[in-house]
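Deliverable D5.2: sample structural annotation.
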Amino acid sequence: MKTMKTGFLNISNGTAVSRSEIAHLPFEDFRENALKIVKDGGKVVHYFGYKERNSIKLIAVLRTNELLIASTNAPDSYPSFTNECEQFHMFEREIAEQYGIKPVGHPWLKMVRYHPNTTGKPDVFGNDYKEDIPGNYDYYQVEGDEVHEVAVGPVHAGVIEPGHFRFNCIGERVFHLEIQLGYQHRGIENLLLDVENKRLPIIIESIAGDTTVANCTCMSQAIEALTNVKTDRGSKIIRTIALELERIANHTGDLGALSGDVAFLPPANYFGRMRGDFLNMTLLICGNRLGKGVVRPGGVRFSIDDEINKELSNRINVLKPQTQNVIDLLLGTPSVRSRFERCGTVSNYDADKLGLVGPAGRACGIQYDARREFPTEYYKDIKIHEFSDPTGDVYARAKIRADECMRSINIIQALLENDIKTQTIDFGNYDLSPESVVVTVNEAWRGELSHCILTDENGKIDKYKVKDPSFHNWNGLSMSLRDTGISDFPLNNKSFNLSYCGFDL
């Protein structure tokens, strides 16, 4: 570890450090240096507030080719970072909501999850807070005789989570899409502060069902760092297999949904069936299709013996050519290509400024993949390829999911060739290192997922911060609708397939 010229401390992914080692900067230096790092090509992993005794602190975790961290005392108000760097947009709104700290000049200051701040300070949003009434503010409006608004949600057809989408249109063309979430804020991060050790994974696994394995892996790596526990080779392989199965199941589901949105029913049905097959492979490992229970601090709760290994290998060998055939059917059909190509394009410039991650970012030419840049588990021994078709449209977002499906299948096939029996664990009670901080970064199927834990002088969790990739990417969906027909919204929405509950927390 070393302190950079900017005053930020260089830390390693999944390694605990003493809180006393984190550079505590005067606010002006903190602001200037954070903005400089990001303007020079860095990205924001975390920027959040936390209480320390009787004061509020701010902490930033930034990413270059390494992780950088620094903290500062929070002022009552400060010049908004977002005016100079768009990546801080959502983070500043969250801090304002949680602690009543106003980023002066923020271009679009509104609530994130609709709750009063924890300090008792007056609302900083310019309107009266009304509990349990999301949307109590003035929506963005475009004026003009022929301009109209279309409101969708928060209640949607089908069994999906609540979210409100408001379109400013002239005829069929969309000027602007405003996305409003926060309808199912569950207070996850507060629940994690006083939870018993054995209940911690249960809550973490419930953050977002489609990201069960990735969230529990982030949490487990953090707890292992704070208890100085090392996992064995077999556990690392099983975790990696579970992460890749989660990736494939969700990507095939998305490809099926995209097929349905262009009324191409054969691949929609095929992908739907194959998604079930991949979920059932996870079921075979741990008894749960979403991977609940497989990853725990210290290792895994289920081993893969020779019989299960053989069955998994047989199943994936059958599914591999089927998956490739259906991908070829979908992406090789001219009518599908004509709908996917040049639809909902997000430029590389906009994606970079917004800090898009995962397939949404890679589809725009941002090659970052945490499996390659910050490898954990068994990824240090796996080659993660870059994406070669970054056109930024629905086609690119579909193509990258298709490519990742096939590459993840190859990864699983290779890992199953190992002897991966392991001693399963039940970690039980444990004591965390006091006055410490740890940041874990993993490539979930939607992109960069990160957890940050701060402990107090008694080793209790003082702050638990979760950053889902959707926290970066919802603004990318808004950009994809600019100057696009409103009828293309379902297709664009499916091509991002972002998380409501991972955002609402």
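Annotation notes: Residues 233-261 form the longest helix (29 residues). Residues 455 and 461 are 4 Å apart (CA to CA).
The annotation will be released with the project's public dataset once the embargo ends.
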